[in-house]
Amino acid sequence: MNAGQRFARIATDAVVRRPGLWRFFRRPLRSSFDRLAPVWDENRSADAFAPVQAALDALDEAPARVLDIGTGTGAVAALATARFPNADVVGVDVSERMIEQARRKVGARVRFHVADAERLPFADDSFELVTLGNMIPFFDEIERVTAPGGRALFSFSAGESTPIYVPSDTLRRELGGRGFADFAEFSAGRGTSLLATKRP
Ligand SMILES: C[S@@+](CC[C@H](N)C(=O)[O-])C[C@H]1O[C@@H](n2cnc3c(N)ncnc32)[C@H](O)[C@@H]1O
Predict the structure, then answer these.
(1) What is the atom index within ligand 1 of the atom nearest the CA of 70?
(2) N or C: which end of the chain has fewer CB within 10 A?
(3) CA 85, CA 110: separation in Å to the nearest integer?
(4) Atom number in ligand 1 closest to CA 33
(5) Alpha carbon distance 65, 18 (integer Å)
(6) Do the bridges between strand 88-93 and strand 65-69 make them parallel or antiparallel, or are there none, so unpaired?
(7) What's the CA-to-centroid distance between 185 and ligand 1, angstroms?
(8) SS3 of 64, please?
(9) CA of 197 to the centre of ligand 1 (A)
């Protein structure tokens, strides 16, 4: 990992343990992703989203509303619209430059907004599917915006080598404590993903 990736890992570990520490990481991480936005897709491996696709394919019920948190250039949101063409898909990111790229690349199929995952601008229970690709999870907000019976999908393109990575036992513990169950894990390409269902 390079220095920026190591910093992202430190931020992930810290914020998962103590979400309030995000206030110290927000500005440097946002600036770093603003800088990376124009070249973000150039460094991506071809199978980066194979674990997202595996989890999406496992969903038998189409969600009406999907939220992709930390959407970056919108790749996971685009996969969600391809898998569920009738769903209303929204992507949010704290980086304005990433959102500009997402709008340019994915276009009007998805509504993209600048927003911080620490405090999402959506009502409780707004989404049947919430996705995070290589993104620091804010578990309280994920729980709040996921509708009862809805799903949360966490994916890491290079498994535990992904700079922003949360081990599955941590995901299970944090989600389990917030009313999620029925965990399913997937491995595809070099990556991993986990699906969880919020109890109805
Ligand atoms: C590693 S990138 C992943 C982007 C995309 N999901 C992908 O896999 O290509 C992480 C993204 O999350 C965004 N991000 C980090 N913390 C965030 C927060 N608190 N709220 C919203 N977006 C955030 C960053 O700006 C960046 O675009």
Answers:
(1) 12
(2) C
(3) 11
(4) 25
(5) 29
(6) parallel
(7) 22
(8) coil
(9) 22
From atom 26 of ligand 1, which residue's Cα is the shortest distance away? 72
CA of 31 to the centre of ligand 1 (A): 12
- Pick from 12, 36, 94, 156 the residue to mutate for probing ligand 1's pocket: most ligand atoms within 8 Å of its CB: 94
As a whole number of angstroms, the distance between CA 65 and CA 45 comes to 28
**How do residues 186-196 score in pLDDT, each as one tens digit?**
999 999 999 99
CA atoms within a 13 Å half-sphere pointing along the CA-CB vector of 38 = 1
Nearest ligand 1 atom, CA 41:
9
Of 193, 128, 130, the closest CA to residue 158 belongs to 193
Please tell me the distance between residue 118's alpha carbon and the centre of ligand 1 in angstroms.
12
Contact 66, 89 (CB under 8 A): yes
**Could you report the per-residue pLDDT of 97-138, keeping only the tens digit for each?**
999 999 999 989 999 999 999 999 999 999 999 999 999 999
CB 196 within 8 A of CB 175: yes
As a whole-number percent, the residues of the chain with pLDDT over 70 amount to 100
Q: Is the dihedral of CA 145, 90, 154, 133 positive or negative?
A: negative
